[in-house]
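Need the bound structure for FE2/S2 (inorganic) cluster, inputs here:
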Amino acid sequence: MSVAQGRWTGVALDHQIQPASSNPVVLNGQALAVWRGEDGPVRVWEDRCPHRGMRLSFGFVRGNTLRCIYHGWAYGADGQCAEIPAHPALAPPKTICANSYPAETRYGIVWTTLGDGASGPPDLGPDEGWEGVRSLFVAASAEAALTALARFDFGAGATTRMLAGDIVEVSFGPELRMLVVVQAMDDERAALHAAAKGARATEERAALAKRLERLRADIEQA
Ligand code: FES
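Answer from helper R.:
Posting the output first, comments after.
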């Protein structure tokens, strides 16, 4: 897979992660629960309850707590188990803790890494003004998706350039710019997350989404 284990990668669009929701994501074969409480920030955890391994992306969010759907163990924003319903008088031991990964929202995209996160998400300029366009899921490797993306014809006047190993910028003149981040799910599946910025970003959003649809066909045919 092209995405190095320690690199920050986009795994969702910010607006897709609704408040009080937990969502499944796969990055480099690792199942993740991407969730948001009432306090705002997106959190990325291993998609596995420390109790008996149920997927935490099936769980439900109340306030800033993620509760496993199986036996109802509740985990606070720091990952620590806060409550075991079958033993209400018991203070859960500190050793019971969900495995969490660094997470940050930038450019309308949720970024995470399976590494220690020391480098932070890529710096692509000011964070303001980015709007999520859409995510695409393709039956192809991340390498194949990137190759097709770099060659794709986004239309008259569009120029494409690689910003990092898995990020491509498409410029449609001075008033519209789009970022497309490729997420390796496993060897045969990838996701692409696109966000746009500029004076024409809102009005062009639907048209950009249609072009990305054509890109998906291109990637899968290749
Ligand atoms: S598996 Fe999650 S509470 Fe039991």
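Comments: Residues 49, 51-52, 54, 68, 70-73 surround FE2/S2 (inorganic) cluster (CB under 6 Å). The domain at 9-107 is CATH 2.102.10.10 (Rieske Iron-sulfur Protein).
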